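Need a sequence for this fold. Nothing fancy.
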């Protein structure tokens, strides 16, 4: 929420020396980007983007462009870089899709009353999973949805940024924002459930080799592993990707070999590639007494992690994401599913004997423990995919002012989407460990899983349709096909998953509702605060009447403010209008420094900003300036004193910052309800203030002096 304070993301200390001491790398990068973008005009080296803007004819909307319009992140990696990123992305984004083979089959064929699945049920199950994998992750998330990226970022809020960039209708944008909030809540719910179900499914394999091992011991081991997973998040996606990529690659090979071995005993399983079997399964009554439509919620588990493909796209790029799925993951999971179904078709009694551990019955006793070890490591990898996606989407929410300001640490200097949010990491860890202890087994967790996954699918399809129709402005006969096919599939999966709400599906529903509620309340508070400040702040016409460039009270009327020697630095998050603290000082003290500078520090979506375009100065008069400082996301956070020293040599001669006393001012707004408001309104105002108080403090980040003057404002809403 705007508090007249600039916001700048934190830089990982380990990356500072490697990225910031290399001036050549920085300059070459930006100059290459300048050559690619012919419309971007750079000033000669060593100059400042500066011009005069008369107060009488002020139109600041045209004065300072949005930072996303000034800088556009473009990534053109070479072949070797694509190969490296594919390996890293394999360990980051596909763990969940790969390890879904650990628990999906059990949900489809296991019956508590001991009924053995028929051959038709087995072929229908295999056909349903195969065609869901073709339609959703392969076509939807590999072909269509990745085209809707915003500066290389994926996810629900990336689509919102894309719609905003194309200036769609306000009504469309508001609807899209609400849907994106729901999608973000579903992804966060997915981020808490995925680590729990993946790890416990792998650890349950130990009970196959050691039947005496209790469920409580399995839960304890799983909880310890999950704790280590969340503890390692500050390392960043690249380091985690290099460690996890080879592990998942080995797991893919192992499950492919096991699948091929079992397929040889029942090659008829390839008949399930005929979609007719999947369609027959809808009306078929299965061995547990349920209808095929209800069983869709179990087949849906094979798609868990598909949304992470898109949400994690900003970490390594679109091409590595597509290559990893099409060349490695998709063939591996298809062979594994077909192999498990072939084993059950050849020996139907295994479906009852194995319970929720069918995956580990594929190999002999000599290979069981190696498979358990590899599966456990792969489950740890699976936990990473959706956690990284949660970091990305919440970082986007913070940037769009849909969530309180959080500490955002960039963990890679070359890729915009690699971020780490400590607060979100702690919240995910607490909820995940609680679910692990509460549900205890993978079969209990699967009921909750499907609702979160299918909700993400529905919201993404809806938002993508809006992009095609309103942002790209395609004719209706082109974009209508997408919702008719993929929207129908998503709604079918979602409606089937909702049948599991009473048996555990309420967990993601609660998480989603809480997330949407907090985002909605925060956005409401931001809007109300902006409206209040807009109507109560000093207008340019008033300022022109009050302010004189003269510093002597004898030369001006007595009601004019007294101008003292020095420079006043007003920190503001907005590049428009007059900061509210200035009006408060005028009303209370009737004293102002001789020179006033409104300073805004903005984070640009490029790794480095060349010195040629770092500063943007608007000169309103000989005593009033606006200074906008653009900082690349890979650069060290500039302290405010460093900003002023660097800009001083480029400011006009009448401003000598080092030789004049500096006074720093920042604003803080407290929301209070009006007297005639109801209880709900008062509760929302109170919640907004609580969220403001727990948001990240920028004083230490910017190195503000201890004598900075904070002007408090009470906004009645």
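Here you go.
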């Amino acid at each position: 929420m705007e508090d007249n304070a600039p916001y700048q993301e934190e830089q990982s200390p380990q990356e500072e020396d490697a990225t910031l001491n290399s001036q050549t790398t920085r300059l070459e990068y930006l100059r290459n980007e300048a050559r690619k973008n012919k419309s971007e005009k750079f000033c000669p080296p060593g100059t400042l983007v500066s011009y005069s803007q008369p107060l009488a004819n002020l139109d600041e909307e045209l004065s300072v462009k949005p930072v996303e319009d000034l800088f556009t992140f473009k990534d053109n990696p070479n072949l070797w870089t694509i190969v490296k990123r594919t390996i890293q992305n394999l360990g980051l984004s596909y763990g969940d899709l790969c390890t879904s083979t650990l628990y999906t089959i059990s949900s489809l064929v296991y019956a508590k009353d001991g009924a053995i699945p028929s051959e038709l049920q087995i072929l229908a199950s295999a056909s349903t999973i195969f065609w869901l994998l073709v339609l959703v992750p392969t076509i939807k998330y590999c072909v269509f949805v990745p085209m809707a990226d915003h500066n290389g970022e994926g996810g629900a809020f990336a689509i919102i940024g894309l719609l905003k960039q194309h200036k769609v209708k306000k009504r469309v944008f508001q609807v899209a924002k609400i849907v994106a909030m729901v999608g973000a809540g579903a992804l966060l719910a997915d981020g808490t459930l995925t680590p729990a179900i993946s790890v416990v499914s792998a650890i349950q394999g130990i009970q196959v080799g050691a039947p005496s091992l209790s469920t409580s011991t399995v839960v304890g081991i799983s909880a310890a592993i999950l704790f280590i997973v969340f503890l390692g998040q500050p390392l960043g996606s690249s380091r985690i990707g290099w460690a996890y990529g080879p592990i998942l690659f080995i797991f893919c090979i192992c499950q492919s070999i096991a699948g091929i071995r079992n397929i040889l005993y029942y090659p008829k399983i390839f008949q399930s590639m005929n979609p007719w079997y999947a369609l027959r399964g809808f009306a078929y009554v299965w061995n547990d007494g349920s209808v095929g439509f209800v069983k869709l919620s179990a087949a849906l588990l094979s798609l868990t992690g598909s949304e992470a493909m898109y949400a994690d796209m900003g970490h390594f790029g679109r091409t590595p994401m597509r290559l990893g799925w099409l060349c490695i993951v998709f063939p591996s999971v298809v062979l594994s599913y077909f192999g498990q179904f072939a084993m059950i078709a050849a020996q139907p009694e295994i479906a009852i004997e194995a319970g929720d551990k069918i995956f580990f019955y594929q190999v002999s006793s000599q290979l069981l423990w190696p498979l358990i070890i590899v599966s456990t490591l792969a489950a740890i990898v699976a936990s990473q995919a959706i956690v990284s996606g949660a970091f990305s989407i919440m970082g986007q929410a913070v940037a769009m002012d849909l969530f309180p300001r959080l500490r955002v640490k960039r963990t890679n200097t070359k890729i915009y989407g690699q971020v780490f949010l400590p607060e979100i990491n702690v919240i995910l860890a607490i909820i995940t460990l609680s679910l692990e202890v509460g549900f205890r087994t993978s079969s209990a967790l699967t009921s909750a899983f499907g609702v979160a996954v299918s909700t993400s699918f529905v919201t993404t399809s809806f938002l993508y349709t809006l992009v095609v129709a309103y942002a790209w402005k395609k004719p209706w006969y082109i974009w209508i096909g997408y919702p008719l096919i993929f929207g129908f599939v998503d709604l079918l999966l979602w409606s089937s998953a909702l049948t599991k709400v009473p048996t555990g599906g309420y967990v993601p529903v609660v998480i989603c509702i809480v997330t949407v509620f907090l985002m909605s309340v925060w956005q409401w508070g931001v809007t109300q605060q902006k409206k209040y400040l807009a109507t109560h702040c000093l207008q340019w016409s008033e300022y022109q009447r009050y302010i004189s460039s003269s510093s002597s009270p004898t030369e001006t009327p007595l009601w004019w403010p007294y101008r003292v020697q020095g420079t006043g630095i007003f920190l503001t998050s907005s590049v428009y209008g007059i900061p509210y603290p200035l009006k408060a000082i005028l009303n209370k003290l009737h004293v102002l420094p001789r020179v006033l500078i409104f300073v805004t520090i903005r984070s640009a979506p490029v790794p480095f900003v060349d010195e040629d375009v770092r500063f943007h100065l608007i000169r309103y008069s000989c005593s009033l300036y606006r200074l906008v400082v653009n900082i690349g996301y890979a650069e060290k956070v500039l302290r405010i004193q460093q900003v002023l020293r660097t800009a001083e040599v480029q400011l006009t001669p009448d401003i000598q910052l080092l030789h004049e006393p500096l006074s720093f001012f920042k604003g803080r707004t407290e929301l209070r309800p009006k007297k005639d408001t109801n209880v709900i309104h008062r509760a929302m105002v109170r919640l907004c203030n609580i969220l403001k108080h727990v948001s990240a403090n920028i004083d230490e980040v910017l190195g503000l002096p201890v004598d900075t003057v904070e002007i408090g404002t009470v906004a009645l809403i």
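For context: The domain at 83-515 is CATH 1.20.1740.10 (Amino acid/polyamine transporter I).
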